[in-house]
Amino acid sequence: MAEAMDNCAQPGNVQIPSGESQAVMTGRPLGGPTFKECKSTGAAVDVSDLVDISKVIKVEKIDVSTLPKKYVYFFLKRLFDIVSCCVAIVILAIPMCIIAILIKKDSPGPVFYKQERLGKNGKPFMLIKFRSMYIDAEARGAQWAQDDDPRVTPIGKKLRSTRLDELPQFFQVVSGKISLVGPRPERKVFYDEFEKYIHGFNQRLVIKPGISGLAQVSGGYDLKPAEKVVYDIDYIKNCSVGLDLKIIFKTLKIVLTHEGAR
Q1: DSSP alpha helices (H): ranges in 92-210?
Q2: Torsion sign, CA atoms 165, 128, 79, 182
Q3: What are the φ/ψ torsions at residue 182 (nearest 5 degrees)?
Q4: pTM (predicted TM-score)
Q5: Which of 8, 179, 254, 257 is the most buried (most CB within 10 A)?
């Protein structure tokens, strides 16, 4: 039950930590300047393609003190996270080993890709994925994934189209860093920039992030941050066992149909 209570939104606890936000990603020369190893800091990034920087948008404000506590729901959610992901890890152990071998054969670099993201209440953690990009893909700073992104490796394209690059996150669900369902975790540098133009974007941090969320199954990569946060707020206000199951089934459909992949 304590674990369930930890998932509940707590008023006044949403903070974005100070300091650097490290993003170690990978890439290769693609006919342009050679990429070199780097770590992107918390410096501002250009988000003009993602948000309308000519105006400020204010999204619905969440008063977490008035939200239902939903202790039973969060207990069941945590229990389902642990059981389902443990089963998935056992079933997918051999496929994950095969994926690791294919990544090593496909391009130089590590099998896994780690990047700092912000979790519940702005607490930073390292998100883990199968590496789908060439080494040094963010040598020019933090970048948002694009359609037909040239930084993506051949095997990475297949992993991303099927969402198989997310499989290592099952271990993080079991450890409690993230959940199966919740707002997708984002980097501090993007939270900082989005909040400038989308007041209330940081409200996504009042609940534990997830592998998939309402925004991902309602438009995914086609949605801009201002649109995604509306879905995320809607989820935070109305999260339930039924809604979680609906999102999980829609996610499985996306995995099978490859919709919205980059």
Answers
A1: 93-106, 154-162, 169-175, 188-197
A2: negative
A3: 165, 170
A4: 0.77
A5: 179
